[in-house]
Predict the structure.
Amino acid sequence: MSQANSEGESSGARRGAGAYQMLWDCRFCGTAKLLGVTHRHCPNCGAAQDPAWRYFPSEEDMVALDDHKYVGADVICPACSQPNSAESKFCIECGAELAAGQVVQTQGVRGIGTGVAAADTRRDVVKDQFDAEMKRAGVTKDGPGFLSTTKGRVILAAIIGVAILACAGIIYALTYSKAVTGEVEQMTWERVVNLQEYRQVPGEAWEDDVPNGAYALSCHREEHGTRRVEDGSHEECEDVDKGDGSFERQCTTVIDYRDEPVYDDRCSFTVDSWLDGRSITASGTGKQPAPDWPEVTLAGGTYGKERERARHETYAVVVRDSDGDEHTCEFDDQSDWAQYDVGAKVDLEVGIGGAADCDSLKLAS
Ligand SMILES: [Zn+2]
Ligand SMILES: [Zn+2]
């Protein structure tokens, strides 16, 4: 794949890893594509190279540096601002000591990926500096921030105030309740027995997941997901400005992957198991006759036979309060329910929506 790409490129193959010259244009006489390492000064007008003017060349303008000894990014002379080799102790322009000089800013990294550098990275340095200067001076297109205006602050304060009121209202509504008196109108109970039934159940699963005891198996090969497998490799490159007029092309080999289907046995089968079946309910009103469990007759046989799985009981008291509203309170425990009788006077708390707080239900004293 990568092989075909690089051979099929008509505008020349990509240059390999290694050291190359950055380029720069002389801003004084207009000479273009000067070499970052070779031309410390413009050969036409003698102006010193400014590291800010450097750019990455296009693929066809790349000039390799054989035996380039990298000693570090250039250092700016603290006295005259000219860039000097990191090796120098004194400025080649003015002779000042360079120990306190700052390292030049580089052009960073240019990502190439699997392609080639189609164009150079020459920028309009004068315009960039002008834009940066304007930004520093605060002349930007954005107006003043919303919150830096008086109107903005007032609106924000109003929004916060409304939000606080809304929260307070919600808390009040959630916690508000009033005490009411009432009378028990009705008492009900319900007792339920859940059964299970032994059945032949059809199923389908991957072979490893077929349950124990399954029979009448029928399996076939089927795609069961995919796995990633290595599928060749390609090279990806990036150019790194070294800050001394050169850049380094660094290339790494990246492994390619593709998804390959994985096959497994898919099986249909039958398995005998207990499934949820009938529920038998007994219910009544009042305490007499006393609540009792329903009569349960389990079916027999091989398939279709039944067994008991669980029992549940619920008890309810219906209260009519002094405002005429009806409330139903439920109990799990028969003894909590049995303390009430139809006609008994009760006390109860009712929330803002009219819902009863059944934990507060008690016989009136
Ligand atoms: Zn020049
Ligand atoms: Zn100097």
